[in-house]
Amino acid sequence: MKTDNLKDLFDGLDFDVAEPAAGHEGRFRDKLKEHKKEKTNHSGVISLWLPIMSVAASLLVAFLLFQGLGNPFSSEQELANVSPEMKQTQNFYASVIKTELENLEEMKTPETEAVINDALQQLDILEKDYEKLKKDLNKSGQDQRVIYAMITNFQKRIDLLKSVLEKVNTIKTLKNTPHENNII
To answer: Which of these, 59, 139, 140, 157, is most buried using a 10 Å CB contact count?
Structure first.
């Protein structure tokens, strides 16, 4: 019974069973050859441009990596990458820290060397903490707590430098004050 329904289904359909015109195969082969010739002409141009384009792409990637636009493959994210305001904040704190460090180096004497070296060690610890925070920022997806911790780290470094500068000034003041003339 099933075969009868199938036979009825195919009997109702109109299949084109006509033979192709004479010379059809030859014309088809000619068109294929013609298409192949066009393709080889274009592939010569493409094969010439392919190495040039790959070198250009390599140079572009190298340019982006070394121009400070950020390493797209880097696993660490800077505070400056969060927003334009955070970039300004980072630049501000970095410039203040740089200025304070320069002032500290100018005031370095044998009497103040121990205090300054201790401060530089503490700054190194804070810098290592900041590097850990950069990794945390990347993992957390710009969590506000990590951003706040990064800003606090900058503030701690500035506070440390200012307190060391005050101590150095106090040491210099005490050194320059003649104590022999003071009467108790």
So the answer is: 157
Tokens of 121: 């060690």
CB count within 10 Å of CB 129 equals 14
pLDDT value of position 104: 84
SS3 state at 129: helix
Q: Which three-class secondary structure state does DSSP give residue 130?
A: helix
Give the integer Cα–Cα distance in Å for 138 and 159: 27
Closest CA to 156 of 127, 133, 115, 135: 127
- Alpha carbons 129 and 131: distance in angstroms, whole number: 5
Cβ pair 97, 107 in contact under 8 A? no
Residues 13-37: pLDDT tens digits? 766 677 777 888 888 888 888 887 7
Helix, strand, or coil here: 29? helix
Enumerate the domain spans of the chain.
34-67, 79-176
pTM of full prediction above 0.70: no
| Residue with token string 């990637």 | 61
**Tokens 């506070």 correspond to what residue?**
159
